[in-house]
Amino acid sequence: MSFLNKNEKNTIDLTENTVKQVAHATAGGIREIAEATQGKGEAVNLRVTKKLAEQFGNPAKETSTLILPADFGNLASSVA
């Protein structure tokens, strides 16, 4: 016995397929980034650290709560 009608089942199927497609695309993107940055760890860390610092530049825009690492003065250690 099913509690869902055909329309609800179709909606669930579409949602599951969408989630799978997004996961597949994300995994592909991560693989491409990993391949492109192989051997360039220092440059990648610098870029991530820069973006992290930019995000902390104005935290009040997004939220009133901000959680910082214990050693925020050393951003590189936060992303290494």
Notes on the structure:
With 80 residues, the chain is mostly helical. The protein folds into 2 domains: 1-36; 41-80, no CATH class. The protein is 64% helix and 0% strand. The model has no long low-confidence stretch (mean pLDDT 79).
List keywords for this structure.
80 residues, mainly alpha, 2 domains, 3 helices, flat
Strand-residue proportion: under 5%
* Distance linking N and C termini: 53 Å
Give the % helix: 55-70%
Number of helices: 3
The average pLDDT value, as a whole number, equals 79
Number of folding domains?
2
Class by SSE composition = mainly alpha
SSE map:
Layout: H1 6-36, H2 41-55, H3 75-79
Please sum up the structure shown.
This protein has 80 residues and is an all-alpha fold.
